[in-house]
Amino acid sequence: MIGLRRGLVHGAKIAALGVSIPERVLTNAELARTIDTSDEWISSRTGIRERRLCRPDEATSDLAVAAATDLLSRNGHHAEDIDLVISTSLVPDTLFPATASIVAERIGAVNAGAFDVQSGCTGFVYGLATATAFVSAGIYDTVLVTGAEALSKALDWQDRSTCVLFGDGAGAVLVRPSDNGSIFAFDLGNDGSGAPFLNMPAGGTRLPASHETVDDRQHFLRMNGREVYRFATRRVVESCQKTLDDAGVAAAQVDLFVPHQANLRIIEKVAAQLGFSDEQVFFNLDRFGNTSCASIPLCLHDAMAQGRLKKGDRLLIVGFGAGLTWGSCLTRWEL
Ligand SMILES: CC(C)(COP(=O)(O)OP(=O)(O)OC[C@H]1O[C@@H](n2cnc3c(N)ncnc32)[C@H](O)[C@@H]1OP(=O)(O)O)[C@@H](O)C(=O)NCCC(=O)NCCS
Questions:
Q1: From ligand 1's centre to the CA of 161, what distance in Å?
Q2: Does ligand 1 lie within 6 Å of residue 121's CB atom?
Q3: 233: part of which helix (H) or strand (E)?
Q4: Is 329 a catalytic residue?
Q5: Cβ contacts of residue 197 below 8 Å, gap of 6+?
Q6: Would you list the domain boundaries of the chain?
Q7: How far apart are CA 172 and CA 186, in angstroms?
Q8: Is the CB of 164 under 6 A from ligand 1?
Q9: Are 223 and 163 in contact (CB under 8 A)?
Q10: Alpha-carbon span 24 to 51, nearest angstrom
């Protein structure tokens, strides 16, 4: 049942979806009252109008647990049946233990193994690929993948070049065997030479926490926006094209294209280069900003609610982010 060729796998599907959306809305206008920015600058350069913020007492695992609980309550699946929990996030609860361990324990996945996937904002696609490989190989039946971010805790709210871009939220999917041969085509990539362009400099073994690192504000997300923009527009197009080619699917045959929600200008440029019409492209970053590993599942949830993603549709998703990493996946939507 496994791969016909590199990047192409049969026999797995996304069998359930859940989300967690923090209540607190932070608008561009509100941000403009605390830092030197404007609604006009943010919305014209990025397409973002508002984002959600978790509560001060919430961490990444709290949002992941809420999304997983939403998934389990909607779809009649049981936590005890989960074989593996994969948590994806840019900013986990702690360096260790894995956030997945906390999530599994909190939802009652007592029979599951658990680990984190760290591949920047591409984490959800990497996690989905990992889950699909386990299920397609017949190793596990039921794998939970969460994409959750309490990113507001890792932003420098004095740095207008980054803090306006990101938001909090979470999504979760369950990957299970597919009876009708749903196909997953994947492309995963990495260019570690871009590591300095998007990172959190301190807090790991390279630069352990010290008074100096705190004073220098090195425990927050740092980004070279122009370099990331250049990287994203090139690699995302290449990756999507490779995945479409591997699956033997033309852009016109894709029902919905869901790219990582970083910047509307990136989305529009990429979509145009791939030849997608406006009707094929989904975005909700105007309401959520960049929620990193949560952005794709939050879009899937919205797209279903709006009737733009239906059972049987051909879905193409693509992520990119710190690493620098990228990853795309084509599948048939089974929900
Ligand atoms: C971040 C991004 C929107 C910045 O747009 P840009 O056109 O490259 O803007 P620049 O960084 O060159 O800054 C242009 C000016 O706007 C200013 N500026 C930056 N942030 C601002 C803000 N929030 N409000 C007002 N002005 C701002 C800069 O200081 C600069 O001013 P200067 O010309 O006087 O020096 C853009 O680079 C981008 O989207 N990059 C990709 C980021 C991304 O995808 N990250 C997620 C990866 S997962």
A1: 5
A2: yes
A3: helix 225-247
A4: no
A5: 223, 224, 227, 228, 231, 324
A6: 8-180, 184-332
A7: 19
A8: yes
A9: no
A10: 8
User: What's domain 184-332's architecture?
Assistant: 3-Layer(aba) Sandwich (3.40)
Which residue CA neighbors atom 15 of ligand 1 most closely? 161
Name which of 247, 59, 218 is nearest 148 in CA terms. Answer: 59
Catalytic entry in 28, 199, 263, 290: 290
Structure tokens at 247: 């699956």
Phi-psi region of 139 (alpha: psi -120 to 50; beta: other; left: phi over 0): alpha
pLDDT tens column, 110-156: 999 999 999 999 999 999 999 999 999 999 999 999 999 999 999 99
C-alpha to C-alpha distance for 167 and 309, rounded to whole angstroms: 24
- CB distance 120 to 196 below 8 Å: no
Per the annotation, the verdict on 290 as an active-site residue is yes
The pLDDT value recorded for residue 182 is 74
Evaluate: CB of 233 within 6 angstroms of ligand 1. no
Q: Is 293 known to be catalytic?
A: no
As its CATH architecture, domain 8-180 has 3-Layer(aba) Sandwich (3.40)
Q: Residue 98 pLDDT > 60, yes or no? A: yes
Residue 44 Cβ contacting ligand 1 at under 6 Å: no
